[in-house]
Amino acid sequence: MHLSGELSLPALQRALDALMARHESLRTSFALHDGQPFQLIAPSLPLPLTCVDLRQVPVDEREERLTQLSEEAARLPFDLSQGPLIRAALLRADDRKHILLLTMHHIVSDGWSMDVLFRELNALYTAFTRDEPSPLSALPIQYADFAVWQRQWLQGERLDAQLSYWKEQLAGAPPFLPLPTDFPRPAIQTFRGAVARRTLPLSLLDSLKRLSRKEGTTLFMTLLAGFQVLLRRYSGQTDISVGTPIANRNRAELEGLIGFFVNSLVMRTDVSGAPSFRELLRRVREVALGAYAHQDVPFEQVVEALQPERDPSYSPLFQVMFALQSGVEQSPPTSALSMESRELRTHTSKFDLIVATVEGSEGLDCAVEYNTDLFTPDTIHRMLGHFQTLLTAAAEQPDTRITGLPLLTEPERNKVLLDWNKTSTEFPRHGCIHELFSVQARATPHALAVRFGDESLTYAQLETQANQLAWHLQGLGVVPDTLVGIYLERSPSLIVAMLACLKAGGAYLPLDTSYPVDRLSFMLRDARAPILVTTQALSGKLSSESGVHVVAMDTQAEVLARQPPRAPPTSTQPSHLAYAIYTSGSTGQPKGILVPHLGVVRLVRDSDYIQLSSQDRVAQVSNASFDAATFEI
């Protein structure tokens, strides 16, 4: 509680002690007798107020220190055998600003109790600062009275009827909701958590209320239906069980008590098929009304009766909770002090997900408590956006099938449909590989183009040797789209031969020297390559291929050296073939993949893909028969 204004410490201590005297649950501890727990109610029990003065802490560090102390208070465990099971600490930030930390064990309190405590503490403090008596009327009963009554009332036929309902309702339910997670699920369930928030707009809240009135459902039922559709879409499961808390205060005498009354109900809904959202609302309404009619049996007794298959990595019957809660009513400030209740970050999560919604002045406030060992913050924020999108569509068009309700937010739709499809990039579309290389060779003739051990070629040398081989290949009949086999070891000659095939107007077919002869022969025949560029030593391995003209670069070096050093004319266009690469053939016969000049130019000249400068060097790691070699070369 944030306290602003002039604080009377004696009045605050007196108000806390009055609360302890008023509510037996705050004076209750739990001891063991013959191995069984039983409650001990102390006749009187003061509540010590620990005070911490932070005025000496530098102002810029004070907020961080306040947060640190608050979170430490939340993490400090209780000893259930020693009361009180509530702690109070007062942090003094300055003369007119205090934070009152009230930490209670869940065994003596629940969410409703927080509202009771806040309201009564405010009323008591206000009265005591004015030297007035307590304005609170005496409580008609205490929590122990309720506990005794419940044990006596819920037995025999009543208990059997309630348990029979839950046994039938949850029979055969999937034990686990397979939500996609960002991290592998730990072998043992953890409880580290965080909270993500989002406010759905007031206009959407009003639309959901109108739909609820029209369909005879509560706002909770409508929100739950939307949430279960979301879970179906995320998990792919059509049998969805979601837990929900219920106040379990169905008698007026219980409304003003502090204690653990809340119960958990399992809302199991069939979301199979493709019903409209309107039809799903009817299913959810029926499930919810059945659960409300059998809400009295404690959840742990339901688990005990069902005996579900237990797994230490997740909680039984449900792993996700959904709730619509009433907002905390902030009490009007006294003349000297205002009190404002605020939720504290505890960094815990009791389930995989807990979605808590509250009607606020600006719309529907959604808070998702999530397990941080399963989900990242981005995933949960994205889920909240999907929830809003889905509810908006359901409220506007309830007759839409739930499988057709949209999930993506507008930015996500733009990213998927537009941004990710902006694949057009600027690159030279009218030049072939060899033409662009010639431009580079003229620009940097003396720059190193290829290095292999002690051998090297400058751009000018590579250009000249490739031109001379290209003239020779043209003389053998190479025209655009003619495939020329290249059967060479990794060496500068390999690069010369590839470039020469392109300059001649043809395309190259790289043949890995480590391949079996049968595979190489198949590739030559299948590609109908009329020419094979190789060396004298290698040519004998494929000499049996009839009709293939062999060009041995080593023994014909003098012939090639007499060819013109300039590039031969060609009619090659960017759409003509540059090379063919064969698949591995692991699923059957190897297949030749034909790649045009344009594809290679797009690969290496697209600035969005790679940026190379004159200082960069690229190693040719891949063998020439693997497509990755294209980029490296």
Number of strands: 21
Q: Tell me, briefly, the overall form.
A: elongated
At CATH level 2, the architecture of the largest domain is 3-Layer(aba) Sandwich
Going by CATH, the homologous superfamily of the largest domain would be: ANL, N-terminal domain
State the CATH topology of the largest domain.
Answer: Rossmann fold
Largest sheet entry: 5 strands, mixed
- Poorly predicted runs are none
Alpha-beta classification: alpha/beta
Describe this structure in words.
- The chain is an alpha/beta fold and 633 residues long.
- The chain folds into 3 domains: 2-129, Chloramphenicol Acetyltransferase, CATH 3.30.559; 167-182 and 191-251 and 266-326 and 364-421, Chloramphenicol Acetyltransferase, CATH 3.30.559.30; 433-632, 3-Layer(aba) Sandwich (Rossmann fold), CATH 3.40.50.
- The protein contains 19 helices and 21 strands.
- The chain has helices at 9-22, 59-75, 111-129, 143-153, 156-169, 202-215, 219-235, 277-293, 299-306, 377-396, 410-417, 433-443, 459-475, 492-503, 517-527, 536-539, 557-561, 597-605, 628-632; strands at residues 2-5, 28-33, 36-41, 49-53, 86-94, 97-104, 193-201, 239-246, 263-270, 320-325, 337-340, 353-360, 363-371, 448-452, 455-458, 483-486, 507-510, 531-534, 549-552, 577-582, 592-596.
- The strands form 7 sheets. The protein has a 5-stranded mixed β-sheet, with helices on one face.
- It is elongated.
- The two termini are 69 Å apart.
- The model has no long low-confidence stretch (mean pLDDT 92).
